[in-house]
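Assess this one:

_____
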Amino acid sequence: MENGIKGANVDFLVECILAIETKEECRAFLEDLCTIPEIKAMAQRAEVAKLLSEKKVYNEIVEETGASTATISRVNRSLAYGSGGYSEIFAKVKK
């Protein structure tokens, strides 16, 4: 884990996420942990990342997700220069 997300609190959060076994558990945990707008923002970024990885263009992504071009650009930078988390998880989800 790089980019300033090391620490006991983050480690505990990661352990909690790894303990999730079902979609229902995940939804309940997210709902308790985050506000609805935070969950929606994370869901939107994940969808944007998926569409970018499918080679969709910004205009299509704006139409499909309602995301701003700033959000799309930020997610695109994460895909290009981030830690590879999106790609790794998307590969697992495809299986």
DSSP finds six helices and no strands in the chain. The helical segments are 8-19, 23-33, 36-53, 58-65, 69-81, 85-94. The chain has a mean pLDDT of 94.
